[in-house]
Design a protein that fits this description.
Layout: H1 18-37, H2 43-50, H3 54-82, H4 84-104, H5 108-136, H6 142-171, H7 181-193, H8 198-203, H9 208-217, H10 219-232, H11 234-241, H12 243-248, E1 257-258, E2 261-262, H13 263-289, H14 291-311, H15 315-334, H16 336-343, H17 349-364, H18 367-378, H19 380-401
Antiparallel strand pairs: 1-2
Length: 417
């Protein structure tokens, strides 16, 4: 699959109102992540409320993740056939409704169904939002705006941690499932002011059948990107999901505070701030150095943070290690929205990039279980180290050997000048 990079940005014509499109795409991923991560902080509360085991509540996370590829397929096809704007609005209203219904769930079965249906919306949004933002933004800003989009994920995680310390004590646990409604309405408003993607207008597929034929015609790059994302998505899960549990195992640590916050909330807030900075910084670096080199730099930063991150003997060392680790991890992911969209076929960009990303999530879902199993044999520090170091090195190899199309124009040749 050959692409012309067309990196001469002097002839780019900025789309009027592109800022609204980028804002809507980025803010929606923040809201999506917030609605997902609030559940992580409510395992014990929900288990007690619904009279089920904690494992039953944790299971709903797996269910949400399993439904994400379904959403990427459905909403991605909708966006490539019917347009980015209307599909984005439908998707954000859909997953916000499922989140509200989660907060109103009268019993555990209703709760489970809502979380599964929410997963469809969560899986659908990334492909639409990323393709819409990347197609609308000027090429000279694509790197940093790619980082901005991906920074929405740690930002959502950070806001979920903040909400648990502010909204929940005042209004109760159900309130966090309603907190995103004003943001969803803001995203709808931004999208209504934003223009439709010109790249989509000029290169939309003629039919649903044509869209899926386009995917099959590019099966080589599809399989490569699926391999890349399947391995790469082991990284955030491997560095985030068990880290609070790891901190709990360190004697006396949970009794300490970080800038006045309990360690188990304060540490995630700090390392998610570092993650946001990393996504923006490495995203911008990729605009100058190229996607592959920038991502490898980010991974190298994470690799050197492992001693402090996994073996730190003080709270300061662990917090510093986790901040450097997440700077690198999310810095690497800051390159991904631009990279996937630049390598995706024009007529199915939303479907292609979104499905590769979300199917990669599904394939990577056993990562935490594998890491936890290693813990049983080697202890937490070595389990974290072996898993994460192996994943980082493997990603470096896959990425270095793969293609790149940094700065490629999304418009037909006749429209590039």
């Amino acid at each position: 699959m050959a692409f012309s990079a067309q990196t001469n940005t002097e002839n780019d014509r900025d789309t009027k109102g592109w800022q609204f499109a980028v804002s809507a795409g980025s803010l929606g991923w923040v809201l999506d992540a917030f609605d997902f991560f609030v559940l992580v902080f409510l395992f014990d509360t929900l288990a007690e409320h619904y009279h089920v085991s904690k494992a039953d509540v944790v299971y709903t996370l797996t269910l949400t993740l399993a439904m994400r590829p379904v959403g990427a397929l459905f909403f991605g096809a909708m966006a490539d056939r019917l347009g980015r704007r209307r599909s984005l609005i439908v998707c954000v209203l859909y997953f916000s409704l499922m989140t509200v219904l989660t907060g109103l769930a009268p019993n555990y079965l209703f709760f489970v169904v809502c979380r599964a249906l929410y997963g469809i919306g969560m899986g659908g949004y990334w492909g639409i939002g990323a393709s819409y933002a990347m197609e609308s933004s000027p090429r000279r800003f694509r790197g940093v705006l790619s980082g901005l989009i991906q920074a929405g994920y740690p930002m959502g995680y950070l806001l979920a941690a903040v909400a648990m310390q502010t909204i929940t004590p005042a209004l109760g646990w159900r309130a966090v499932f309603f907190a995103g409604v004003p943001v969803a309405l803001l995203i709808v408003g931004l999208t209504l002011f934003a223009p439709e993607s010109e790249a989509w207008r000029q290169q939309r597929a003629a039919s649903i059948g044509g869209m899926f034929r386009a995917v099959l015609e590019h099966k080589g790059i599809f399989l490569y990107l699926l391999l890349l994302m399947s391995v790469m998505l082991c990284l955030p899960h491997g560095t985030q999901d068990l880290y609070p549990d790891f901190l709990k195992t360190i004697p006396g640590l949970t009794a300490k505070t970080v800038f006045g916050m309990k360690t188990l909330y304060g540490a995630p807030i700090l390392y998610n701030v570092a993650a946001i900075v990393g996504a923006l910084a490495i995203g911008q670096l990729s605009q100058k150095a190229g996607r592959r080199k920038a991502l490898i730099v980010a991974l190298a930063i994470s690799l050197v943070s492992i001693p402090a991150w996994a073996f730190g003997v003080t709270l300061g060392a662990l917090v510093l290690g986790s901040c450097v680790m997440q700077f690198g991890v999310q810095g690497a992911f800051g390159v991904i929205p631009a990279h996937l969209n630049e390598l995706s076929p024009d007529a199915v960009r939303s479907l292609f990039s979104g499905f590769v990303y979300q199917f990669g999530v599904l394939i990577a879902s056993p990562a935490v279980a594998i890491e936890y199993k290693l813990r049983d044999h080697f202890g937490y520090p070595w389990a974290l180290t072996m898993f994460v170091a192996s994943v980082i090195v493997l990603i470096m190899i896959i990425f270095w050997l793969g293609p790149e199309a940094a700065g490629r124009s999304f418009l037909p040749a006749s429209e590039k000048e």
